[in-house]
Amino acid sequence: MVKLNRIYTRTGDDGTTGLADGSRLRKDAARVAAYGTTDEANSALGVACLHAGAAHAAMILRVQNDLFDVGADLATPGDDFLPDGTKPKWEPLRIVQSQINRLEAEIDGMNADLKALESFILPGGTAASAHLHVARTIVRRAEREAVTAAAADVINPLAIHYLNRLSDHLFVMARHANRPESDGDGDILWVPAANR
């Protein structure tokens, strides 16, 4: 359980931040960038939720909770063993396959209501769709940063899988929010070289 009595600690004034295991890392480190961008995506989803219908809002709230799990996962270094080979006193919070499976099931459910894509689409349409596209692109950045971090450190691969699947999920939800049944006009299609 998290308990925050004091918001500022001054411990980060030297340009470092504390990780979940108590170690410190520079604030511009790849791991910190990845979980910071995950937090940014979560905030963008909070705005999207303001414009979403009930079914989409429920999915967004589940995702927001998951993104805190992703952040905790990324903020906990190591492969769940201490440097001396012993297990930590507490089990690190890690993303698990069932969270990814839920995203896939929701993608399939929403996609069943959509026509097959015949062109790339432009981000926009309804307010909900536009905000979901913003969140989607932030999630893609978080995924890239997590991959960068994984090249130098041990990162739970399922955290990266989750971010990858989530960007797909948000893309499909953005399309779903643009359906006429959701007060949209459908996808806004890219027309190559339209303004030449």
Task: Describe the structure in your own words.
- The chain is 54% helix and 3% strand.
- It is built from 5 helices and 2 strands.
- It has helices spanning 30-51, 54-74, 97-111, 127-152, 157-177; strands spanning 16-18, 24-26.
- Helix 2 runs antiparallel to helix 5 (157-177) and helix 3 packs parallel to helix 5 (157-177).
- The N and C termini lie far apart (57 Å).
- The model has no long low-confidence stretch (mean pLDDT 89).
Give the key terms.
single chain, 196 residues, two-stranded antiparallel ribbon, 2 strands, mainly alpha, Hypothetical Protein Ta1238, Chain: A
How many strands appear in the DSSP assignment? 2
CATH fold label = Hypothetical Protein Ta1238, Chain: A
Number of helices: 5
How many domain units?
Answer: 1
What's the pLDDT, averaged over the residues?
A: 89
Distance between the termini: 57 Å
- CATH homology superfamily: Cobalamin adenosyltransferase-like
Q: In sequence order, what are the helices and strands, one letter per element?
A: EEHHHHH
Shape: elongated
